[in-house]
Predict the 3D structure of the following.
Amino acid sequence: MRWKWIFGVAVALTVALIVTIYVILSSYDFNSLKPKIARAVKDATGRELILGGDIELEIVLTPALVVEDVRFQNAPWAFRPEMAKIRRFEVQVALLPLIGGTIDVKRLILVEPDILVATNKSGKSNLEFKTVKKAKPAEPKEKTPAEAEMTLPALTFNEVRIEKGRLTYKDERSGRTYVVRLDSLTAMASDKKSPVELELKGAYNRKPFEVAGTFGPLIALTDPGKALSLKLTAKAGDATVAVDGAIRDAINAKGLALTINAKCRSIAGIAGPTDAGPFKVTAKLTDDRAKTYKISDLKITIGESNLVGSVKVSLADKRPRLVAMLSSRKLDLRPVLSKDEGVGQSSESAAKQGKIFSDDPLPLDVLKQADVNVKIRAGQILLPLLALNDLKVNMVLEDGHLTVRPLKFVIGGGALDGRFNLRPQGKSANLALVLKTDQLDLGRMLKDLEVNGIIEGKMDIEIDLNGSGGSMAALMAGLNGKAIMVMGDGRIGNKYIDLLGTDLSSGIFQLFNPSKHETNLTQLNCFVIGFNIKDGLAESTALVFDTNIMTVVGDGKLNLKTEELALSLNPSPKKGIGIKGVGKLSLSLTELTKSFKLGGTLANPSLAIDRTRTVITLGKAVGGAVLFGPAGIATALATGSSGDEENPCLAAIEAAKKGVKVSGGEEEEKKGVVESVGNGLKKLFGR
């Protein structure tokens, strides 16, 4: 029976050893380890670790370590002294699995953790630590197999809980701060081969969100041969995002096969106040090659708008590369585009200088951040001021060189064909833009935008511009080319004529439609604008606005370098101004023949009477009146130029296309007026 005696002694010694260890550990003051722990952390990170509370160790088969009031020092330049603060840290680890090299965390609890991640203005992060340099030991000639194959011990969790946590990221370069608040986070798994059940509630920048679902098993985080499954649902406001699928190699983030579904009752929850309607996105995310990710079966729906296609992003090369093929039946962007922002809105610096075009450097460096090839096809795209149909666009960005060709679409029934080229050269860029459209139906386009009563008619547009510069102001200052707009028969809303001002519209401009109170639209025979542009100076070749009652011929310059306007508008009434006879004429002769000058700048234009031009126009009318008596006034008003009945529309169109001014110049005009007045006076006195 000796073996029983031996066994009994062994058991007694084991129990005695365990009791001895328990007594020693129970009576040991673990707070005495604080200086050693703090010194080890300082050597490893260069930062102070402060353990303000007691260190408690519960001695059981799953010992629990509890530490309170833990603070970790921040970088010297950061705006608060602590990088991390934890009110209570508790961890419980199973002892027996440690023998097999596995760290089995039964419970990990963090109470009120507060972590700050920051980047200063030079781009340095507070996650960059300064370690104490130690003498480097001599490297052995040969590594033992055990050293060569050494791996980290397996780590598993049964329960992780965070209460009232806070994670802040502050970027001093942009001045932005992002805050994630965790009200509660619970992650539980029965063992390392079981999926983890996750439940999280918190807020991002004060906007509540919650996440629930499963992922795992945890062994997939240490074993590349195990796939990590995901089935998570996140909710924020009206938005819900669900991810379902697996990652074949979670350690190296390879073998993605995920399905993503997102929806929102209103896109207002994402893009701010808008009436765009429900929002829905479905897509598949895969990686067919190393560092190459593909979004396929992409379907986006916003109200009645939709977008489908595929996107591939490659991070394998020096610059990221994006290739996309997208198509849409209808894409209404009006609800999601800010009404306060647009192409014509000046930057803050330009606004301070009273200019439209900004002196701020163009963000040319952004063009070199990635290579892009995007093809877009759309049946209809609705913008705040444009309605585009049958859109075909191919945008290519290669090594900073941006080209858009083709750029084709139908606008208001008229086909537009164009191209755009932007090539950076140092801090400047060369720009080339060509646009041409025929028979653009303005009324039809506005009808697509559900806007009526502004303007009706068909217009031809031809734009051919090129220039170079490092800012928008510099580009405009050196611009060259031409711009032509020609509109034939049409109508314009009277309220837009009234915008010229009470004094002006009550005088000469009411002649566009004397009976405007009986109709909302004024008939147009033509509207022609032509400019030749050289070195930022745009000179008019044609500027004509013609109705059945009035012709306005303009002339002048627009200095794109200084943004100064110098345009003269010369009205000439025609036959049939809404009167049955000259005796019932309600407007004075001077009102009918006033000329106007559009001056000021693009940012602050001004419209005033041009007294020099008024004398010329008045001279024409006086000449006719003296020559032919009361009937002569009607003749002068009917022709505007001593019987010259040339069609102003045809002349203006020809001048615009040829780049030649409509009239022969102010000096010849003055000479003709003087001769007309002189001849009239001779007849009056019988000579």
Remarks:
- Residues 213-319 form one domain.
- The radius of gyration is 40 Å.
- The chain has 14 helices and 33 strands.
- The longest helix spans residues 611-639.
